[in-house]
Design brief:
heterodimer, A: mainly alpha, rod-shaped, B: mainly alpha, 9 helices
Chain lengths: ~120, ~180
């Protein structure tokens, strides 16, 4: 009975096997090509993101150096008391911090938008 | 016998060339499945191309204990459905205990006696007349010996429902073939 059932299954299997479709010769090439392209582009995105991050880090370091320099020059000019002076703080430190933060935010948003755009390009 | 799990580990470590093995092994069956859903060869190959790319990018989510074919054919199936903008299968509640697993139809014997080219034409025409869901179940069950469990996993149905669909598909195919063979 089991042997008989296996023969019937094999019979239909052999009949249907003849309807199996063969893929085109260039399909494999297209698949490999697309994968290689996307892998190469994703590496480029990583590089773009990393270089933008480095730019932001550079700006933050430069601003920190400027602030430190400003503080030391105020101190060494014999007006150390002015470090705790509210007017000096608002005049020298706050503008530097504000501008630096604003520029850093702009860079961060730009990087995010660029990486999203690149990723959308892969998926389409 | 190629160790697919080993190849997958190599691909995840950056050996992209190893992915060619999977393309060579599974592309024909993938095109067949996609063709049964989409109905034309060009769309089927586009679906298969997208499926392989998706599989490559999501290889890190593949569970090594599972079969690659089951996982990949599920991607092909879902991609094809998205392509045509449809969902084919619905779970049905049917008493499957009355279904026999290996019904016999005389049409299979008659077909075997016909010339190969004519036979291919007749079977292809008959398959086109089948509902797509029955076509898919027959394709998955007979062309690569997928188990009921694997088929259920691929098309997201219960095993009982797959048995019902398979039973209906065989019966339906025989009914379609009968007048075609009589006309020959």
């Amino acid at each position: 009975m089991i042997m008989d059932n296996n023969i019937k299954k094999t019979q239909l299997k052999n009949l249907l096997a003849e309807t199996k479709i063969e893929a085109s010769e260039n399909l494999k090439f297209r698949i490999v090509q697309q994968i290689n392209t996307e892998v190469a582009l994703s590496r480029k995105t990583e590089q773009v993101v990393n270089s933008s991050f480095r730019s932001i880090l550079l700006i933050v370091c430069v601003v920190t150096i400027i602030i430190t320099f400003a503080l030391y020059s105020i101190y060494f000019n014999g007006v150390e008391g002015s470090l705790v002076n509210k007017e000096s703080f608002y005049l020298y430190i706050l503008p530097f911090c504000s501008i630096a933060s604003f520029v850093a935010c702009l860079f961060a948003i730009d990087t995010k938008l660029r990486s999203k755009k690149l990723k959308r390009g892969f998926k389409s | 016998m190629v160790d697919e799990k080993l190849l997958i580990k190599r691909i995840l470590k950056g050996d992209n060339a190893s992915f060619s093995y999977f393309v060579d092994t599974y592309q024909d069956m993938a095109v067949t499945i996609a063709y049964r859903i989409c109905g034309n060869r060009q769309d089927a190959e586009d679906v298969v191309q997208n499926s392989f790319v998706k599989a490559y990018h999501n290889l890190h989510t593949f569970k090594v204990q599972s079969k690659f074919s089951t996982w990949f054919y599920r991607i092909v199936y879902n991609t094809a459905l998205t392509h045509i903008g449809s969902s084919l299968f619905k779970n049905e509640s049917t008493d499957y205990t009355q279904i026999e697993n290996n019904e016999y139809y005389s049409e299979w014997d008659t077909l075997e006696q016909i010339d190969l080219n004519d036979r291919k034409t007749i079977i292809n025409d008959a398959l086109l007349k089948l509902p797509t869901d029955e076509n898919i179940v027959l394709t998955l069950f007979y062309l690569e010996d997928n188990s009921i469990k694997d088929i259920a996993s691929i098309i997201n149905l219960t095993e009982n429902n797959v048995k019902v669909k398979l039973h209906r598909a065989r019966k339906h195919l025989a009914e379609i073939l009968k007048p075609m063979l009589q006309n020959d």
